[in-house]
Amino acid sequence: MRTHYRVVIVGAGTGGISVAARLLREKHHLRDEVLLIDPATTHYYQPLWTLVGAGIVKKEESARTMDSLIPDGATWLQDHVTTFDPENNQVETSSHGKIQYDFLVVSPGIEIDWGRVKGLKESLGSKGVCSNYSYEHVDYTWDTLEKLTGGTALFTHPASPVKCGGAPQKIMYLAEEYLTKTGVRDSSRVVFGSANPAIFDVTKYRDALEKVLERKQIETHFRVNLTEIKADEKIAVFENLDSGESFEMSYDMIHVTPPMQAPAFIRNSSLAESGGWVDVDKHTLQHKQFKNVFGLGDCTNLPTSKTGAAIRKQAPVVVRNVLDVMYGHLPTASYDGYSSCPIVTGYGSLILAEFDYDKVPQESMPFNQAKERRSMYILKKDFLPIMYWNGMLKGTM
């Protein structure tokens, strides 16, 4: 095993593989000089999990073996990074010791903290407690929804950053439509308990989604955070984030979006800012202190939504700027905070939210994307996965 590479990339998820593929396409002399470090054997296209939870696709469609996706010319080290040592241009791994780099790209994603909600870890996948954020348990969302004959279907959004901020509400809209289809909607309550102050950050899409909530008669509670699940009693405990008071809500089914945080090996490193995220310049994606280090994706402190669509725009910026610095120049590429959230509002309808750092819509279609459309649903379900596997991860889009 070599102990020095020109470019070391931590994380072979969406960001890491995209950057590796682009680097190797652009600079053939980097062949065998790019190392991807990731312990996972399977790579998941997680946006499909919303549709799995609603019974539309099989979860196996979201999975590929990691070795089938590593770009030609890159080396994959199946190992954990335990420590960053940017002062000495090296990372430490659990099984292969220290590895030196000239340039480091950090993109290991986000860590789910199931333990932060009391009772969640023990009850997940049983007693009506569901989450589409777990590959292991995503089927249980559909099992539970299919068997629901009325009562309260409760959906939550935590007081932490989450990957794909729209996902907690997408499954709720699908569930509401399914309950209508099966004739039990009139005997059901659909409730959203969210730590956010509103249904969406961007005014144009918030206005549209408020109409969806009204049409579907979904009950909303904002600025509330799930703190405990009493699974045997089917009771959820929330904290009101404004008053600090706790209150309980009974449910028959609860879909939990768990709290998330930066991975521990980043939080405890000199790459992190006070919140634990990789501290990068929001335009160049270069680390604020270590100029040969770059970060992208969910692990960073970029003030935009943590989505694969954001990474699609970040990856070429990282590649351009790594190469600029490699050849003795200042970074020239700039990221504007673009992110996208395809918000499924039903079986066959979708609002495609696209926006930048300033929460200004940056729409790519020649029509009003705040309108629910079947064409955009088909784009998400059928075309975006193809673009992901065959374009984005190959470094061509």
TrEMBL record:
Record-linked Gene3D superfamilies: FAD/NAD(P)-binding domain
TM stretches of this protein: none
Taxonomy, superkingdom: Bacteria
Pfam families: Pyr_redox_2
Residue span, FAD/NAD(P)-binding domain: 5-120
PANTHER family, sorted: SULFIDE:QUINONE OXIDOREDUCTASE, SULFIDE:QUINONE OXIDOREDUCTASE, MITOCHONDRIAL
Protein name according to UniProt: FAD/NAD(P)-binding oxidoreductase
UniProt organism field: Exiguobacterium marinum
